[in-house]
Amino acid sequence: xxxxxxxxxxxxxxxxxxxxxxxxxxxxxxxxxxxxxxxxxxxxxxxxxxxxxxxxxxxxxxxxxxxxxxxxxxxxxxxxxxxxxxxxxxxxxxxxxxxxxxxxxxxxxxxxxxxxxxxxxxxxxxxxxxxxxxxxxxxxxxxxxxxxxxxxxxxxxxxxxxxxxxxxxxxxxxxxxxx
Length: 179
Ligand SMILES: [Cu+2]
Description:
This protein has a single domain, classed as PCu(A)C copper chaperone (Immunoglobulin-like, Sandwich), CATH 2.60.40. Strands 1, 2, 3, 4, 5, 6, 7, 8, 9, 10, 11 and 12 form a twelve-stranded mixed β-sheet that branches. It is mainly β. The chain is globular, with a radius of gyration of 16 Å. Strand 11 and strand 12 (139-148) form a beta hairpin. The protein contains one helix and twelve strands, in the order αββββββββββββ. The relative contact order is 0.26. Residues 51, 80, 91, 113, 115, 178 line the site of copper (II) ion.
């Protein structure tokens, strides 16, 4: 009985879940969750924080929740959102991001993002950075993001973060909170 409980605890913690198979060059899918177009912004020398963006989609008929992220390039990784206070946009830490099946959640400049704190080295344009995202149900999904120029608004020279539900993702506004 004791053994069974231990196994259940390990499974529940997500540690026993295999890492998802990467799809294409950058995105990944696992446990019904699809992560597309992950990218990061280059950081100026001496910057201690950076940000990563992507589109996350849970499979039709499922719900999930992004609860944590980590990366070898950062001492600490948090999930951040923004609140708008008049003309001022402020970052705030989120406990997680709820994902509704079949809908995209777009992490983008000026919106929700994965915040890399205590960077071990500047993020250099052209680099590939591995991020591990931890989902309540899908477990750990590893993605590789490209580092785009300082101030970029989207991956691969695009002017925004692409997403399948663009009409729901709202406007992209200028983001001066970091980078
Ligand atoms: Cu942030």
